[in-house]
Amino acid sequence: MSVTSLTSLKQEVRMLRSFAVSIVGKDTEGVYRPPFVRDVLRAAQMQPNRRFTGAADFLAGLSKRTHV
Q1: Per-residue confidence at 68, pLDDT binned at 50, 70, 90?
Q2: DSSP three-state, residue 67
Q3: H or E element, residue 59
Q4: CA end-to-end span of the chain, whole Å?
Q5: Count of domains for the chain
Q6: According to the model, what pLDDT value does residue 65 have?
Q7: Mean per-residue pLDDT for 2-18?
Q8: How confident is the model at residue 66 (pLDDT cuts 50, 70, 90)?
Q9: Helix, strand or coil for residue 56?
Q10: Which residues constitute the domain of residue 18?
Q11: What DSSP letter does each residue of 2-55 carry, written as one string?
């Protein structure tokens, strides 16, 4: 495979990836920005740091994070 072919292939993959992100980002409420969609999808793949046992526990955890 030549360098030109490889460069062309990389550009095509980049365009397809951008297209896929734009499709995922469409919603009945509007269109989400591709960087936001990437961040959300990346966060969804991460392992959780903590499991909450209920609403009060969740809110207490949020409160601790905002007052630090």
Answers
A1: very low
A2: coil
A3: helix 55-66
A4: 54
A5: 1
A6: 66
A7: 86
A8: low
A9: helix
A10: 3-66
A11: -HHHHHHHHHHHHHHHHHHHHHHTEETTEE--HHHHHHHHHHHHSPPS----SH
Q: Which residues have CB under 8 Å from 26's CB, separation 6+?
A: 32
Chain centre distance of CA 26: 13
pTM for this prediction: 0.34
The pLDDT tens digits for 20-62 are: 877 776 666 667 788 888 898 898 888 878 788 899 988 888 8
> Measured between alpha carbons, how far is 35 from 37 in angstroms, rounded to an integer?
5
| Paired tokens of 1 | 């495979």
CB 25 within 8 A of CB 31: yes
CA 29 – CA 57 distance, rounded (Å): 31
